[in-house]
Amino acid sequence: MAKYIVGLTGGIGSGKTTVANLFAELGITLVDADIVAREVVALGSSGLEQIKAHFGDKICLASGELNRAALREIIFSDKSQLEWLNNLLHPLIRQTMLQQVQIADSEYVILVVPLLFENGLDRLVNTTLVVDVSPELQVSRTSQRDNVAPTQVEHIINSQISREKRLQQADAVINNQGELAELQSQVALLHDKYLAQASLYETKHND
């Protein structure tokens, strides 16, 4: 059964989660890359077992769960280890996301992926939706939300695809500079559009 997939992305602090939740309130299933990334290394997962076999038991907490801080320390000081980890996790994450898409029972599915374009995951979707805000708002929202220094947020923004490039690759853009009501009306319009597109897509691919 072919599913119509909307790839939702945006820079840090743009309000992706808020937008995704508004679609969820309209009955649309969300598949979130960040949640899936945690699931594929959860206790008892083959992902965690492979990480343990590679790095040794020191990579786990006393509970047996992944010690993320210890892992982060290793991969940030060693590029080859980061590459090894990405080669393990990216296919697992992609496969799990696609499995979740297939079992979703809404008319279309929203794939929430912070690094949609950076990791080439836009190839998995039918259309892309970017949540956009000014860099100034990104910095102030994120530093307040995560209680971190503005310079740290700027560093993260600079490590992501540029705002211009992201907007160029977007099929649709949601402006999240304003009030919640404004956001809700943008989501409602897009929801109607995606329902129509999903219906056409399904007719074409499931005959």
UniProtKB/TrEMBL annotation:
Give Gene Ontology CC terms: cytoplasm
Q: Where in the cell is it found?
A: Cytoplasm
Keywords, in A-Z order: ATP-binding, Coenzyme A biosynthesis, Cytoplasm, Kinase, Nucleotide-binding, Transferase
SUPFAM superfamilies linked to this entry: P-loop containing nucleoside triphosphate hydrolases (SSF52540)
A single Gene Ontology MF term assigned here is: ATP binding
- One matching Pfam family, short form? CoaE
**Pathway recorded for this protein:** Cofactor biosynthesis; coenzyme A biosynthesis; CoA from (R)-pantothenate: step 5/5
EC number assigned by the record: 2.7.1.24
Q: Which residues bind ATP?
A: G13, S14, G15, K16, T17, T18
GO BP: coenzyme A biosynthetic process
Q: What is its main location?
A: cytoplasm
PROSITE patterns registered for this protein in UniProt: DPCK (PS51219)
Q: Which reaction does it catalyse?
A: 3'-dephospho-CoA + ATP = ADP + CoA + H(+)
Classification via InterPro entries: Depp_CoAkinase, P-loop_NTPase
Q: Which family, according to the similarity comment? A: Belongs to the CoaE family.
Q: What does this protein do?
A: Catalyzes the phosphorylation of the 3'-hydroxyl group of dephosphocoenzyme A to form coenzyme A.
Q: Can you name this protein?
A: Dephospho-CoA kinase
Its gene?
A: coaE
